Amino acid sequence: MSAQDHDRVADDRAGPGWAAVVMAVAAKDLRIEFRTRARTLTMAGFVVMVGLLFFFSVDRALVRPQDIASGLTWITLILAGLIGVGRTFEIEKADGAMTGLLLTPAPRDAIYLGKVLANFILVYAIVLLTTAVFGLFFQLDYSNHPGALLLLLAAGTLGFVALATLFGALTAETTLGESLLPILLFPLLVPMVIYGAAASSRLLLGRPLSEVEGQVRMLAAFALLAVSVGAVLFGQIVEE
Amino acid sequence: MNASSTRSSHDGGLGLHALRRRFGAHVALRDVAATLPAGAITAVFGPNGAGKSTLLKLLAGSLQPTDGSISWKGATLDTRSAEWRARIGVLSHDTHLYAPLSARECLSFHARMHGLRSPDLDAALDRVDLLDRAEDRVAGFSRGMRQRLALARTLLHDPDVVLLDEPFTGLDAHAAQLLEEVLRTLRDGQRTVVLVTHALSEGLALADHVLMLVRGAVVLDTPSERLEADTFAERYHALVDAAEIARATTTGAPS
Amino acid sequence: MNARTGWFGIGMALAGVLVSAYTLWMVFFWVPTEVSMGIVQRIFYIHVPSAWVAFLAFGIVAVSSAVYLWLGDERADIAALSAAEGGIIFTTIVLITGPLWGKIAWNAYWTGEPRLTLTLVLGFIYVGYLMVRNATDTPERGKRFAAVVGIVGALFIPLIHMSVYWFRGLHPDPVILNPEGPTADPEIQTTLYVGLLGFTLLFLGLMALRYSVERAHRTLELREAA
Questions:
Q1: Beta carbons of B26 and C225 less than 8 Å apart
Q2: Are strands B192-196 and B217-223 parallel, antiparallel or unpaired?
Q3: Domain regions of chain A by residue span
Q4: Which positions in chain B touch C139 (Cβ < 8 Å)?
Q5: Nearest CA to CA, how far is A115 from chain B (Å)?
Q6: Measuring CA to CA, which residue among A55, A195, A210 is closest to residue A144?
Q7: What average pLDDT does chain C have?
Q8: Which chains touch B (3 or more CB pairs under 8 A)?
Q9: What's the sign of the alpha-carbon dihedral C201, C206, C209, C210?
Q10: pLDDT digit string (tens) for A66-81?
Q11: Which of A45, B22, C66, C168 is the most exposed place for a label (fewest CB within 10 A)?
C-alpha cells in the first residue's frame, strides 16, 4: 500500500461512530435473517400451531375466549421469542464471527443494542402475527385503543428481547446452552406478564385508557431497565 | 532500516514483559519476556500446548495477562482499548465470516465496524484474487477462498500490527503463495507481523525474527539471520526435548 | 485472613445456633398462642426470619458480584458464592414452611401470597445463579456469568416485588394474611426479632465457614499452578 493510501486510511481511522455500529449490526443481522429465514419461519409456524392448539383446548361453551386470550398471547409471545432470540448467537458462533466482531474497535454496548434492535424487529413482527392469529381464532375485538395495545406490546417485547439477548449471549457460551435460557429469563419476566396481560386484557374488554396507563408505564420502565442493564453488562459476558 | 535486533531496546516493537497467564491451575505462559521488532516478521514456533495461541490472544487483547504487561514502541499497552483494536489485524483458524453474506458484504460490515468511511473494497478483494466472486455468498466458498477473504478482511483497515495464528494450515498452494506475498509486502511497508506457525521451513524463510515457546516459556529469541535453515528442524526438536526433560525433573512427574 | 475467617465463622455459627435454639424455646414454651390463627402460627417464627435471611443473602450476592466484576477481586466472588449457597438454603426453608403453614391453617398450599411468590422467584434466580457458575468451559467465565445473573436479578427484584404486590391487590384473598395477627403482642414481636437475630447470625456463620473453605481451596490451586 502506498504512503498516500496509508494516510487516507489513517484519516478514516477516527473510529466507528456509535450509532453507525448499532445500525450496521442490526442491518447485518436482519439481512442474514432475511436470507436464511430460519428463525422467522420457525417462530411463525410455532405461533400459528400454538394458536390452533389453544383453540382446541378451550371449550367456548364454558369459557369466554376474551377472558384468557390476553394471557395466552403473552405466553405465546415469550415462547416464540425464546425460540427466535435463543438462536441469535448461533450465527455469531459459526466461524467464530463474534470473536472477529469483538476484535474491532466497535463498542460492545453498541453491538448489543444493534442485536437488540434486530431481534426486536423480528420478534415484534411475530407478536403482531400472534395478535392477528389469536384475534382470528378467538374472534377478538381490537377496536378499543389499538394504538395503546400496540404500544404496550412493543414495550413488553423490547424488555423481553433486551433480556433474552443478554442472557442468550451468556447461554451460548455454556455447556447447557439454550436450555438454560428459560431458567435465567423467566423469573425476570414476571413483571412483564403481570402488567402486560392485565393491560391488554382490560383493553380487550373495552376498559378505558386511564385504567391501563399505570401498567403501560411499568412496562416502559421494565423495557428501559432491561436495555440499560444489558448494555452495561454485555461487555462482561462476551469477554473471553 | 528494519529493527530486527534483539537488543532489549524497549523503544521499538512489541515488548513482552514478564507475561504470565494462568487458567485455573494450568499455567499457559510463564514469565515470557521478549521484544518482537517493529516493521518485521516474527515467527513464533513451538509444540502444541506451548502457549503460542495464548500469546497471540494476549497481544490481540482477547485475553488479559494474569501478570506482566505488553508494550508497543515503549509505551505500555491497554490491549482492551478501542485504539489498539483499531491498529491490529488478526487472522486465526476461525474465519470470522458470515456464511449467508456475500464477500463484499462481509468486508463492508467489517469496514463499518472499524469506522472506515470510504473503504476500497474492490482493491481489497482484488489483492486476494476474489474480485470476480465479490457478490457470491461465502457459504459457497472453499476453505482456501474463505481464508483469502479472511485475509482481505484482516488487512482492510491497514493495521500496523498483524497477528496470524497458523494461517498456512489447510491452505491450498495458490492461497499459501498469496499469503506469503502479502506478508512480505506488509513487512516492506513497515508493518509488524507476528506469525504463529507449525511450518518450520516456511516460517523461517519468511521471518526476520524467531521466538520459540515450549510449555509457556521462551526457549529461543533471536534474529533469523543467526539461524541455519538446514539445521533448524533439528535444533527445534532438541530444544523441545530439553525443555520437556527439564520440566519433568523439576516437577518430578511427567505431565 | 483465612484462619481468622474460619474461627469467625465457627464463632458466628455457634452464636447463631444458640440464639436460634433460644428462639425455638421461646416459640414452643414462651410466646403465647396467637389468638386468631392458633398453634400453627408458630411456624411464622421460622418462616419470616428465613425469608429475611434469604433476601439479605441475595443482597450480599448482588453487591459482591458487582465488586467482583468491577474490581476483579477473587474474594468478592468467593463471598458471593458463600452467600448464595447459604441464601438458597434459607429460601428452601421459606418455600417449605410457607405452603405447610398455608395448608394447615387455610387448607391451601398456595394462596398467591405476594411475599411467598417473590421468594419463589428469588429461588429461581438463585438456581440460575448456581447453575451458570458450573456450566462454563473455564471457571473464570462461570464466575463472571454468575455475577451478571446476580446483578441483573437484584436490579429486577424491586420491579418484580411491585408487580407481584400489585397483582395481589387485584385479587385479594378472603383470608387475612397478617402473620403478626390483628394485635401485635409484645411477646410475639420479641420472639420474632430474636429469631431474626438468630437466623442472621447462623447464616453469617455458615457463610464465613464456606468462605474460608473456598478461599483455602483456591489458594491451594494457585500454589499448585506456580
A1: yes
A2: unpaired
A3: 18-239
A4: 24
A5: 14
A6: A210
A7: 85
A8: A, C
A9: negative
A10: 788 899 999 999 999 9
A11: A45
